[in-house]
């Protein structure tokens, strides 16, 4: 992927990063890179994610999905990193598979979905690294019941990806379900390029090996300097802007098929960096659509934002027909792609003209290799940013309080745990 930070420099933007500051920051990037490589070498928790291009086993994934290759529908039951990597790949790469990502417990949505799909033609992939996530297990129990009601043998149409212990592992063992192992030492939000995110892509007919080849390119590009490593350039610049006041990062891909990528980025960035009072808030946006929505705030609102503009350099195009409509001759004879590119560049210029920092990220096209590289590079950018912030990049303790309290509310046990008492109050 190509990263251009020119419009984030202090000569262009405020907040902006002075070039001499970027030079000094590169010394810290080099030290951080050494720490990252040491963590990767030791397969340390979290850093192991950056080894996935080497440790992921495409053949095992292909074998696991082969029995379900005739399925018309995929129901991926998982939440957070157990959904978003797979959804990003499938939404970006398309294909004939009717893929649904059940990653919430909205009863109306679940009921409508289960009534809409043919469960006899559906493969269910239940994904949970811990194997205990309430939303995932609740949804699985509902899906299993719906399959039984429909006279479908759920054990014939379900496979799981999970860790070594937990309810999901027990279920797989009890019913002899095909089970893939969640990658050891890899937090969910970093597991797109593994048995967590890749089965959905394989079921959709995409080339898992090509996705991993792109990720391997990203691994090879991890030099020790932000000046020749796109991932580090992005992670270091986003960090440098945050500490100078750009506390919000609007991820704005100019492709409908990358909208879910912005959602995946939001979890990766927020759950990894949001610690100890630090962290940059990801905002999900979409170009060109949000030029008619959030751009007003980005350009004329508080000077607290970085806008990350992402596009593919090549794409299929579609011509705009000639028109008799007055004043639209600037469109006639052109194409929707021309218009999208013009809007991308005009938005970038508009932000620069107003001094709002932006970073341009370009990938060659939206295919397996480019997606594998994009996901890997943003994971590496996030790991680097975590080193620069000095936070625990790979944990997410702040999400546990609410989980415990919710369980307490539901269990209704007397003498509710203190947290639940607080919720009840
Ligand atoms: O894969 P699991 O263990 O079900 O976790 C799902 C998601 O929940 C979290 O653990 C947060 O609660 C995320 O980090 C993770 O991606």
From TrEMBL:
It is an enzyme of class 5 (isomerase). One of its GO terms (biological process) is glucose 6-phosphate metabolic process. Catalyzes the reversible isomerization of glucose-6-phosphate to fructose-6-phosphate. One of its GO terms (cellular component) is cytosol. Its EC number is 5.3.1.9. GO terms for molecular function: carbohydrate derivative binding; glucose-6-phosphate isomerase activity; monosaccharide binding. It catalyses: alpha-D-glucose 6-phosphate = beta-D-fructose 6-phosphate. The lineage of its organism: Archaea, Methanobacteriati, Methanobacteriota, Stenosarchaea group, Halobacteria. It comes from the Archaea. InterPro entries: G6P_Isomerase (IPR001672), Phosphoglucose_isomerase_CS (IPR018189), SIS_dom_sf (IPR046348), SIS_PGI_1 (IPR035476), SIS_PGI_2 (IPR035482). Belongs to the GPI family. PANTHER family: GLUCOSE-6-PHOSPHATE ISOMERASE (PTHR11469). Keywords: Cytoplasm, Gluconeogenesis, Glycolysis, Isomerase. It is found in: Cytoplasm. Pathway: Carbohydrate biosynthesis; gluconeogenesis; Carbohydrate degradation; glycolysis; D-glyceraldehyde 3-phosphate and glycerone phosphate from D-glucose: step 2/4. SUPFAM superfamilies: SIS domain. The active site is at 271 (proton donor), 292, 403. This is Probable glucose-6-phosphate isomerase.
